[in-house]
Amino acid sequence: MRAVDPRLVGVRLMDAGLVDVGLVNVRSSGGAAARPAAAARMPRRLGHGEQVAFAREVARLAVRSLHAELCLYPKPGLVSPVDSGSHEDMDAETFMRSMFALRHYFKKICLAGLDDAPFARLKALGIAAEAAMLRATRGVNTHRGAIFSLGMLCATAGRARAQGTPLTPAALRAAMLIRWGEELAMHAAPERRPVAGAADAVPVGRAEGADGGTSAPVGCAEGADRGTLVPVGRAEGTEGGTLVPAGGGVAALSNGLRVAARYAVSGAREEGALGLPSVFEVGLPALLAARARGASITEQRVETLYTLMAHVSDSNVYHRAGPQGAQIVRDHAGRFLALGGTRNPNWHADAIASHKVFMLHRLSPGGAADLLAACCFVQSLAALGAK
Fold first, then answer.
1. Residue 205, phi then psi, degrees to nearest 5
2. Which residues lie below 8 Å from residue 100, measured CB to CB, with a gap of 6+?
3. In the predicted model, is pLDDT for residue 256 greater than 80?
4. I need a labelling partner for 220 at 20 to 30 A (CA). Which of 35, 100, 194, 337 fits?
């Protein structure tokens, strides 16, 4: 799998027309400036009170995005207020306790972004957030993937606000890669550590792409007017992308890293290094397309979840059921979409049928669920920026 060259991040963004050349100072391999930065207008510096108020609102939207994902039903094998899906160790109340424990983290990491913090500081906040989550859930991993993806998006929102740049999806992705792309690429670099049943660890991969887009606002009920970006892997102790330091031997490897090493499936590290492509290139376009055809909020999110399930190699699924389970997930998602997705009058019954099959095989596409929450969050940030 091709490694990410951090020196190319800015060049690719500029070539794609996502950012101005004046916003990036790209350096060649020799260290000399490859493209001189143009003079840019300095944005008005936010006062302390304004920064805190902005970070508080961003944190609220992040928690609402997680709540929206939890409330969605039907979603195959996943926890909701209706049932616990394929899980015996968690229910909706477990997720609510986790969200409550993470609310301060989202505010702190947004403030860190406003303060132009280095990735090491973001990583420390993520480690502390995971510890808080595990205390709140009595050791159950509910939101490890969201700690990474939504955490990076909160920091990026803070960075963008400090620079006076828009909170549109394209601008957010560009801001993330410009500020932390090199460090994220280093974080995603393959580590050569022994893993039982595998030769060496391999870099985690990314999902197949589509085009960018936007989504509907978040809310638990259809028609909600308030609302709020993969990693892959969530429950059962999988490595969903928490900002954790690398190192150690077999014992230090999370289940997600073991899965990545054994099956060479997608993971959060390279997902982050590439600017969350599963969110911006797969999930958001699905939300946008469903919204454009007049789908309800529930239909938009179910459509997006199935699209992500069809495109993302979910380490949580591999951890629980291996490649055979992953194939079942892809087959169900592909068939659901081939029949028209939520445009099919029988979509609800089809989704319930998939839910029963997933529970039978203990399948839980938690990575796709975390990505769905991230998609909702990105759209809510865009709505916040438009105010």
1. -105, -170
2. 136
3. no
4. 337
Name the domain count of the chain.
Answer: 1
Per 3-state DSSP, the chain is made up of helix, strand and coil in percentages (nearest 5) of 60, 0, 40
Instruction: Assess if residue 144 is contained within a domain.
Output: yes
What tokens were used for 80? 């909701």
Instruction: Pick the closest to residue 84 from 268, 378, 355, 297 (CA basis).
Output: 355
Domain hosting 167: range is 47-386
Distance (Å, whole) CA 309 – CA 331: 10
Cα torsion 256, 258, 262, 263 to 10°: value is 0
Asked whether residue 37 is domain-assigned, the answer is no
Distances in whole angstroms, Cα of residue 164 to Cα of each of 107, 128, 161: 19, 29, 5
CA 243 – CA 269 distance, rounded (Å):
9
Distance CA 227, CA 8 (A): 35
Helix (H) / strand (E) element for 213: namely none
Q: What is the pLDDT of residues 63-111, one digit of tens each?
A: 999 999 999 999 999 999 999 999 999 999 999 999 999 999 999 999 9
Residue 173: Cβ within 10 Å count? 25
Question: Residues 385, 167: contact at Cβ < 8 Å?
Answer: yes
* Alpha-helical regions (H) of 164-212: 169-188
In a domain, 1, yes or no: no
